[in-house]
Amino acid sequence: VGPKKEVAECREKFASSGDPTVSQTFMLDRVFNPEGKSLPPLRGFKYSSWSPLGCDANGRCLLAALTLDNRLTIHANLNRLQWVQLVDLTDTYGERLYEASYKLCKGDAPRGELGDFPEFQRRHSMQTPVRMEWSGICTTQQVKHNNECWDVGSVLLAVLFENGHIAVWQFQLPFLGKESITSCNTIESGINSPSVLSWWEYEHNNRRMSGLIVGSAFGPVKILPVNLKAVKGYFTLRQPVVLWQEMDQLPVHSIKCIPLYHPYQKCSCSLVVAARGPYVFWCLLLISKAGLNVHNSHVTGLHSLPIVSMTADKQNGTVYTCSSDGKVRQLIPIFTDIALKFEHQLLKLSEVFGSVRTHGIAVSPCGAYLAVITTEGMTNGLHPVNKNYQVQFVTLKTFEEAAAQLLESSVQNLFRQVDLTDLVRWKILKDKHIPQFLQEALDKKIESCGSTYFWRFKLFLLRILYQSMQKAPSEVMWRPSHEDAKILISDSPGMGSTEDDQEEGTSKQARKQSLCDTGKGMDIDDTADDSLPQSSDVGGREPMEEKLLEIQAQIEAVEMHLTREHMKRVLGEVYLHTWITENTSIPTRGVCDFLMSDDGYEDRTARVLIGHILKKMNKQTFPEHCSLCKEILPFTDRKQAVCSNGHIWLRCFLTYQSCQSLVYRRCLLHDSIARHPTPEDPEWIKRLLQGPCTFCDSPVF
């Protein structure tokens, strides 16, 4: 809010002021006085917000976090299980305000000095975030040096401040840090005591409209236009639209915006729902020839206490609300000729969890699970002495519904539908077989369209089936072992170790190694309860071993099909981006020979593509060489390369190059190995290296 020395002097002056309206206001406000002396320290988070998928360097989400001491930062999960702070927006915004002398516009009249308490309050309130929300990913156009236009992804972060101002940050994707900030514009909302913020995004006739919905602690709700430059197909409102204007002292707690299709009006529409006290305020917005139509009302009779949390399933428009007494309501929108109505029912969680208090709810991205934060409720009319917070998961879909949604999905990415695949996984682990209807439907999909998504789905099902039929290891793999390893010391007196001891130590190590190999990539907690009883009968064990071998063969066949399909894609990129007899770092000849080595593999597309590439290569082979001994690395295996001297290098599954470095990347489920891009790589190879895992759609770290 000003130079450090001047701020320290003002704080001392206000704290010791003879005017109690100044001194008490200053001492009791934790924004001005974060230390608080006898008050508990401000450690923790006030609010957090996840960005859409595809915003960080790995194609995953960014996390905007607002701490209790009003510091807004953005974090990313760049390496596995490691979170890194990318930027502190509080500092950046404070620097911008300092340069502008704490004025929004250049033409604004100069304000008072920092020593005036109202000015001290104003400078703090214009930098104290209340809420922040991410927009969807939009596309901007940039011009290269050769006047060529190229599309760059960007995302917006709207930050609502205590004084009603909204800062709209625009970030270029992938977001790497302060250098990725494109712009920051401040909007005056005109709302007193703002409490909540949400993006309004609406698509009409392939035109994307956007705005910001702001709610007040006094009751009003309105949409503000957001003007953006150089964003393709982006439009906004001409002027603010008031959705609710009554100052009825019902604070707006949460706002959700759900895109829907109106079956009677035959057009897309936008449903805005807001929790106001114990009621749900809804507003249906749709654009017709007459303009923007607004229908609004309240749903009453839901809760006897104020709503503490609200979430929405954007797949079907279902809204869930909860109050602190443990009651969760499900609201299903039903369209009428003009607007809509809600059917609501009580989810009886008390039958499952017992007497609990609820503090928050959230629905998973595809609507498979409802997460509920609970603590113990009252027992015999008494509150518990200690609070134990738990996150409970409630399934909202059946296995059949999840499987059908995966088969008809427009996303065609298993990683983005991980909540649905978890339901399918649980069912197969429990029953130890893939349901017949799912197997038949998946085979039909593979025959009809042949998309690699359905092959990946088949691979996922086979792997879970294989996992369900394996015997659970006797030890839990994640638990550290406290046993001392046996060491043979032959020369020490009195330590004569017999051959039996050596064999015992060797067999113990072998047992541990086999357990590690068996449990690798598996969830032990899930298999422990569902494991098959160990049969002492050798004859009974043989059919199980045969079944496992059969499933293993099917897994290898599907993996080989997916590998060949990706090889064709890589060869297509090589053909499009290389000149005649140009040496790329990709082992093109080896990939071609690997594809043609199987006589049973008949793919006319692959043969034609390989023929064109071999013509372009003009009898050149361009083999890879081992960096240790300079021998040729033959392409005989898709997973690794072995030179004649026995040096083994893992192969990158995205480009099939050998990873001849000490650092490389792995996919989230540890399926595959990928190398890091290098500065000398051309753009098309860097694009290939940005892809997800070809087996499970997971991002690569």
UniProtKB/TrEMBL annotation:
GO terms for molecular function: histone acetyltransferase activity. It comes from the Eukaryota. Residues 488-542 are annotated as: Disordered. This is TF3C4 factor. One of its GO terms (biological process) is transcription initiation at RNA polymerase III promoter. GO terms for cellular component: transcription factor TFIIIC complex. Pfam families: DUF5921, TFIIIC_delta, zf-TFIIIC. Residues 398-475 form the DUF5921 domain. Residues 6-397 form the Transcription factor IIIC 90kDa subunit N-terminal domain. It comes from Oreotrochilus melanogaster. Residues 618-668 form the Transcription factor IIIC putative zinc-finger domain.
